[in-house]
Amino acid sequence: MTQQSTSYPGSKIRLYLGSTLLFICIFTTATLVALLIFLCILGPFSLRYKVATAWCSLVVWMTKFFCGLGYEVEGLEHIKELDAAIVLSKHQSAWETLALRHILPPQTTLLKRSLLWMPLWGWALATLRPIAIDRENQRAALRRLLDEGTACLHDGLWVVTFPEGTRTAPGEEKKFGAGGAMLAQKSGYPVIPIALNAGEFWPRYSFLKYPGTIKVRIGPVIESQGRKAADINAEAEDWIRQAMKDISSR
């Protein structure tokens, strides 16, 4: 149980009611948006992307409205001058998979290929140019990341990766995978590290969403030109781990 949940000032009824309403609204609006994206299938990618991003922004707003869960961002100045970059982000919950589309410039995300198999939602996601990989075949997954990631960067799309590979509980750390750093080494595009503590309020595998303020800290640019992937990865990992100590409540 997170610190926020044990000190929750409101009633349990409000906690459960807010989480229930959020779930219903996310489910309903996601279905409608998926259908809308399909209606835009013959239009430009930019149109489908705007529809999807608008929905992510709506979810962020609904989370605040129904559950009292907001967020604050530090470090936006680090990304103002960048045309495209590779993001290495902490991953604690489903929140950041939506919120980063709202916070960052146009992007693609490295994700599990199986997510695209979900009826309607996954099919709509497949039209948004994700980098979908099979984790069971690591060599093919890396090749896809390097090839498609480089193409996306050249087209002005940021590439968002979660180097720990899966959601981690607050206070938990996993070794960083090197895929994002290898993409940086190959492409020469810079890396942006991001730390966040969303799991303290939107826990993994939990229906309940607790009120509070998620902290998102965007780190300074990590240059990749002329550097090895291992060095890039180590610098990003060190920065994220230190930032997590600063923003985490546990």
Concise synopsis of the structure shown:
The chain has 250 residues and is an alpha/beta fold. 46% of the residues lie in helices and 14% in strands. The protein has helices at residues 3-6, 12-39, 45-67, 95-103, 121-126, 138-154, 179-187, 229-247, and strands at 69-74, 86-89, 107-112, 131-133, 158-161, 191-196, 212-218.
Considering the chains and any ligands shown, give keywords for the structure.
single chain, globular
Could you explain how this protein is built, in words?
With 250 residues, the protein is of the alpha/beta class. The chain has eight helices and seven strands, in the order αααββαβαβαβαββα. It has helices at 3-6, 12-39, 45-67, 95-103, 121-126, 138-154, 179-187, 229-247, and strands at 69-74, 86-89, 107-112, 131-133, 158-161, 191-196, 212-218. The N and C termini lie close together (11 Å). The model has no long low-confidence stretch (mean pLDDT 93).
How many extended strands?
7
User: The biggest beta sheet, please?
Assistant: 7 strands, mixed
Shape by Cα distribution:
globular
Query: What is the percent of helical residues?
Result: 40-55%
Q: Please state how the strands of the largest beta sheet are arranged side by side.
A: 1-7-6-2-5-3-4
Assign the structural class, choosing from mainly alpha, mainly beta, alpha/beta, alpha+beta, or little secondary structure: alpha/beta
Low confidence ranges: none
**N-end to C-end Cα span:** 11 Å
SSE pattern, N- to C-terminal: HHHEEHEHEHEHEEH
Tally of DSSP helical segments: 8
Strand coverage percent: 5-15%
The rounded Rg comes to 18 Å
Mean pLDDT: 93
Oligomer: single chain
